[in-house]
Structure formats: structure tokens, C-alpha cells
């Protein structure tokens, strides 16, 4: 433990450290929050025994003396060590009378598209034990069941996600490390290596009998300075040719659009493109999948696992697909169907690859509306 007497500018380590030891080198990544509930009022620590795939919960009145409460796991994805746990309450569909708890467990490797990822469980916490409603598989991970688990993000680059306690207006805000341990030490950037994700506000919703997280950008984009022109497209039919959007080019953008499927096997958009190649964000309705193809996204040969096609399950809502895409100099963050499905990916395009294009293959699709805001 360490404490600060000047608002966090300097810190002093507690003289009697460690305040808690299990005699294990894999007991780590504590997240501490203050619990107030039927069981009392005290501090709760959520930590992991990383190689045992176990979350361990402790309580304390003074942050110095800790008592074991319970443990959770192994469950669901156990293809890599468990790391960076988090436990927090959320109202279901905004109802303050219906509070459930979310347990986040990051793991590496073992993600749905390879490498690092974060899974979550929804349930109840009575001040002692977390009990999940989520269907779980215990013991050794079954690779064939990865798509059944609940993932914070289906992309390759959203890891070690952690939320903030006591945010204004009771918002639950989360941020993650935008990288993957498969290639983290090899990405072609200097003098820095890997960014953080955009901060997200997360919420809990009942969808077809299942409690699922939704994620939205926490920032008010209208308040961000430096915005350039806005490009708008009311409706367009896409055929089997790539349609470059004149006047929509840029390297830092927010793109909102809605697709209605037609006869095309696949449709979507290209970002950070030169008109033909780029980062491809596609939907295949018959497969019920959305994917990010970064094989031609720019510099992609620095590691054998980077040039990937990463996908997630996606179903239409009222017959359409709504996407909100944040494009930055070296990243793409995709929020689909109101943030129920997200994919976060690093990319390393050429500085001259700034086009945005729409495409369809083997048929047609319709863009019912597109709005693009550019910062650079």
C-alpha cells in the first residue's frame, strides 16, 4: 500500500508492506472499491490468482487488514492467464431498482480472435460472494465455445480494461490498453509503443433474455475543438464496385452509418484507404458476422499474427446494421448496433491513405444514411 498527503502528487509506501500476501507470485492486479450494501460498509479488493484462473475477493475496514471473502473460477475462457479483474454494479436498462453486478476478467492469450482479450460475467454480489447468471463452462477451455462467451471487445487490441469508481452522475467509464501481447513488442512505432482506447461509458441491458453490456464513447464529440467539415450521404445503393466517397477523406474521423442488406454476400466500408486497399470493415449477413480485415491495412508484416481477419457475431436490428466507427492515426474502434458489439484494432496505414469507400460483393446493399466528421 502507498498513500498520498498532497492530492496524489507524491506517494509514500506503507512501512508494513505487504499488507496482504498469499505466498503466490501470481496473486496480483488488485482493484479496490468501497462497498455499501446489505452486508455492511467496507473496502473490497478484487484480485486474481492468474495461473489458477481464479478471482479472489477480500474485505477490509482500514485498507491494512484484509479478510478473504470468496473466490470465483475457473470459468469460460481459460486459454491464458487471468489478469486485471474488475467488479462493479450497473442498473439494468437504467432502472435504479434493478441493480446487477458485472465481473470483468482479462486474459492472455485465449481471446476470441487470438491473443489478449477481456471477458465478463453478469450476476449478483452480496458483499461476500459473486454469483453469475452467465452460462459458464468450468475447467479446461473448449476452443469451439469461444463465440458463446461474453466479450468486452471482439477486436485484437482491447486489453486490461479497467473502470473508474465514483465518476460523476454515476456513470461507469472504462478504458483499455490498445494492444495485444502477441505482437506488442514488435509494433512499428517510436518513441512510444501502443496507445490507450477511447474512454467508454458502459451500460447493462436485457437483450432477448440475456444481460449484455453496451458501450458508447464517453466524450462529447461536439465539444472537441479542431473539427473539420462534415460529410453527409443520405442514401446510396452499393453494387459490386468500390465507391470512393469524394470529400470524405481524412486520417482522424468519426463515421456513423446504417446499412440495409440486399443481395450482396458481403458489404461494408474501407477506411484509411488508397481507394482499393485499406482497412476493410465488412458484414456478411448469411454468416451473422461483422469483421475487420487488416491484411492490406498498411504496414502489417512486422509480425506473423498481425495481418488478421477478426470477426464477431452480429445480427440485424429491424432489418439493418448501424455502425459508429472512430478512425485515428493508428487505430479503428467500431461500435455496432448501439455498442452491443465492439471491435478495436491497431492499424499502421501510409500517411497518404486517407480515402473512405463503400463496397459490396456479389450483389447490392444500401447505405440508408452516413455522417462523417473529420479532425485531421
Structure notes:
With 376 residues, the chain is mainly beta. It folds into two domains: 2-216, Glycosyl hydrolase domain, family 43 (Tachylectin-2, Chain A, 5 Propeller), CATH 2.115.10; 226-374, Jelly Rolls, CATH 2.60.120. It contains no helices and 27 strands. It is globular and about 65 Å long.
Which structural traits does this protein have?
376 residues; mainly beta; Tachylectin-2, Chain A; Jelly Rolls; 2 domains; seven-stranded antiparallel sheet; six-stranded antiparallel sheet; globular
Give a quick summary of the entry:
The chain is mostly beta strands. It is 0% helix and 48% strand. The protein has 2 domains: 2-216, 5 Propeller (Tachylectin-2, Chain A), CATH 2.115.10.20; 226-374, Sandwich (Jelly Rolls), CATH 2.60.120.
User: Quick one: CATH superfamily of the largest domain?
Assistant: Glycosyl hydrolase domain, family 43
Q: Work out the radius of gyration.
A: 22 Å
The share of residues in extended strands comes to over 45%
Treating each run of at least 4 consecutive H or I residues as one helix, how many helices?
0
**CATH architecture name of the largest domain:** 5 Propeller
Order of helices and strands: EEEEEEEEEEEEEEEEEEEEEEEEEEE
Count of the separate structural domains: 2
Average pLDDT over all residues: 95
Shape: globular
Biggest sheet statistics:
7 strands, antiparallel
- Rounded to the nearest angstrom, the distance between the terminal CA atoms is 43 Å
Extract low-pLDDT stretches: none
Category from helices, strands and their pairing: mainly beta
CATH topology of the largest domain: Tachylectin-2, Chain A
CATH class assignment of the largest domain:
Mainly Beta
Please provide the count of β strands. 27
Amino acid at each position: 500500500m502507498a498513500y498520498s498527503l498532497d492530492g496524489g502528487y507524491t506517494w509514500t509506501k506503507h512501512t508494513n508492506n505487504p499488507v496482504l500476501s498469499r505466498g503466490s507470485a501470481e496473486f496480483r492486479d488488485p482493484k479496490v472499491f468501497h462497498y455499501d450494501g446489505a452486508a455492511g460498509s467496507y473496502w473490497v479488493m478484487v484480485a486474481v490468482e492468474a495461473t489458477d484462473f481464479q478471482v479472489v475477493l477480500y474485505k477490509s475496514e482500514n485498507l491494512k487488514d484484509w479478510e478473504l471473502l470468496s473466490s470465483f473460477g475457473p470459468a469460460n475462457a481459460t486459454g491464458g492467464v487471468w489478469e486485471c479483474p474488475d467488479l462493479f454494479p450497473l442498473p439494468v436498462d437504467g432502472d435504479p431498482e434493478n441493480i446487477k453486478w458485472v465481473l470483468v476478467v482479462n486474459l492472455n492469450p485465449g481471446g476470441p480472435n487470438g491473443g489478449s482479450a477481456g471477458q465478463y460475467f453478469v450476476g449478483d454480489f452480496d458483499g461476500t460472494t459473486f454469483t453469475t447468471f452467465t452460462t459458464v463452462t468450468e475447467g479446461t477451455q473448449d476452443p469451439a465455445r469461444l463465440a458463446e462467451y461474453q466479450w468486452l471487445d471482439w477486436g485484437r487490441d482491447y486489453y486490461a480494461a479497467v473502470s473508474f469508481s465514483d465518476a460523476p452522475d454515476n456513470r461507469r467509464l472504462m478504458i483499455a490498453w490498445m494492444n495485444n501481447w502477441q505482437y506488442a513488442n514488435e509494433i512499428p512505432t517510436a518513441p512510444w509503443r501502443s496507445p490507450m482506447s477511447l474512454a467508454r461509458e458502459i451500460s447493462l441491458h436485457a437483450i432477448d433474455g440475456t444481460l449484455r453490456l453496451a458501450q458508447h464513447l464517453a466524450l462529447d464529440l461536439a465539444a472537441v475543438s479542431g473539427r473539420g467539415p462534415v460529410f453527409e450521404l443520405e442514401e446510396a445503393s452499393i453494387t459490386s464496385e468500390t465507391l470512393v466517397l469524394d470529400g470524405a477523406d481524412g486520417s482522424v474521423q468519426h463515421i456513423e452509418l446504417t446499412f440495409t442488406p440486399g443481395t450482396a454476400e458481403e458489404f461494408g466500408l474501407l477506411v484509411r484507404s488508397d481507394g482499393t486497399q485499406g482497412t476493410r470493415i465488412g458484414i456478411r449477413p448469411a454468416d451473422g458476422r461483422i469483421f475487420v480485415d487488416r491484411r492490406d491495412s498498411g504496414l502489417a508484416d512486422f509480425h506473423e499474427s498481425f495481418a488478421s481477419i477478426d470477426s464477431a457475431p452480429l445480427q440485424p436490428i429491424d432489418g439493418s446494421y448501424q455502425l459508429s466507427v472512430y478512425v485515428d492515426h493508428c487505430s479503428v474502434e467500431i461500435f455496432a448496433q448501439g455498442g452491443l458489439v465492439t471491435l478495436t484494432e491497431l492499424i499502421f496505414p501510409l500517411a497518404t491513405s486517407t480515402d473512405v469507400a463503400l463496397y459490396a460483393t456479389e450483389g447490392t446493399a444500401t447505405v440508408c444514411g452516413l455522417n462523417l466528421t473529420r479532425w485531421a
